[in-house]
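Help! Submission page says 'invalid entity' but I think these are all valid:
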Amino acid sequence: GAVVSQHPSWVICKSGTSVKIECRSLDFQATTMFWYRQFPKQSLMLMATSNEGSKATYEQGVEKDKFLINHASLTLSTLTVTSAHPEDSSFYICSARDVDTEAFFGQGTRLTVV
Amino acid sequence: DAKTTQPNSMESNEEEPVHLPCNHSTISGTDYIHWYRQLPSQGPEYVIHGLTSNVNNRMASLAIAEDRKSSTLILHRATLRDAAVYYCILRKGAQKLVFGQGTRLTINP
């Protein structure tokens, strides 16, 4: 299957700082990318959907000023968690798809805010 | 959005077949049935999808009821590496994937 690479795999940051997570589609063009968050022992929760060159569409309850999403090219999307706090500690997962293809997922980024 | 219902957990033995059920009684005619699985500390992995007919691939088989109100993911010969949370998801076309709670599959050696 297609490969989606997420970086970093894990990150620890201090409270109040910002963290950027990258998501790359390695062998296909990702016209649409999705960002999910997953807390321990829970399912994935969709945060936002982004189409290349357009502003992201955020799910209800997700703060767009806190979780900045950029999808500037067909192979790269970034999620920036701004002014991170301990409650933002979670497993962040990206997903990418092209038109008429399945969605493929990155390996996830474990964020710990201390 | 049409919802799916799956058992919270299932257990099976290594090298035996596993049948993972999914109910989707409110499925619409344009909903595709997708299955993904998530191994511990990893992102989800695509398993299989179908619309009306049964589907087979190298990972699994998908059996879809004639009325499409239920489906079953079949792992023909489970291995320890198949231990994961399996998600059954309905999706129309290019819509987003919305995950439910899934079924946690345990494989006994």
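Support: the input was valid. A stray whitespace character was the problem, and the output above is from the cleaned input. The CA atoms of residues 65 and 81 of chain B lie 28 Å apart.
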